[in-house]
Amino acid sequence: MDSVDLNVLRSVLEWRRAGQRVVLYSVVQTWGTAPRAPGAMLALREDGVVIGSVSGGCVEDDLIARLHDGRIPADGPPVQLITYGVTREEAARFGLPCGGTLRLTEERVGDPAWVAELLARCEGHEIVARSLDIATGEVVLQPANRSDVLSFDGHTLRAIYGPRWRLLLVGAGQLSRYVAEMARLLDFEVLICDPRTEFVYGWEEQHGRFVPGMPDEAVLNIQTDERTAIVALTHDPRLDDMALLTALDSRAFYVGALGSRVNSLKRRDNLALLGLSQEAIERLHGPIGLHIGSHSPAEIALSLLAEIVAIKNGVELKQKKPLREEA
């Protein structure tokens, strides 16, 4: 899940601890073209304040109307199923494209202990499954795997939650600033490691968090996992290769290094001489980014993040040039 949905749960926890009534909506099924995928969430506070999204806007308006016109009784069942877009006319009314249909759970949140536990486990970089019993409203949290997906059989909703995707940048130069800014817009947690104090000036906390130490130490200290991408951007092999030796043997879903094709081939040879296995070396992305004819730092950052997001989303890299040109 995206951290935008974790932010929904953070608000649910805050509102419930303040004694306010909250209804949590989750997309459980879609047919046709729907604006949000299953798992998307919206929380509705008793005064009509909302956070999150389940559609393009019109469904949200109707959910608020349900609150104000009494269609959400205080003594009603803990969970209800709501369907929008059954007819083409209704789909048009609620802004669902191509006659799309979506089904939501309408869940009145009682004891928020499960919300606090789920958020704490995600902060600890765990992937968690939340099972919601539609008949009783009971919530059970269980460990989950990265390959698990949301499921709904009409009786139980099993949704998957996980920590934010992270991007560790080795190097705090000009390119890293563009990458960090774009990555935060894409909802990545940005981490920076650069032992060269000359490059630290001008970095504000909102652009990313500095990880102290040398690059190889940083890769270990952040407890790199399957939701972490690591990119070496210093152009200094003493720093970049130090990070890569550790990163390529980690669980990071993406490891890349800035450099031309010639330098990328040399780097692979150097990593082999340093004892890295061929299997690990094959994981290295370099040159980094999709081929979009990029030249400026902003264009290179865009190319890099397009590649990282494509891999995160399981999309084939169709615009990636081969490292070795065919003869």
Automatic annotation (TrEMBL):
Cleavable signal peptide: none
All copies of domain XdhC- CoxI, residue ranges: 15-69
Domain XdhC Rossmann: 167-308
Protein name, UniProt field: Xanthine dehydrogenase accessory factor
Gene3D superfamilies according to UniProt: NAD(P)-binding Rossmann-like Domain
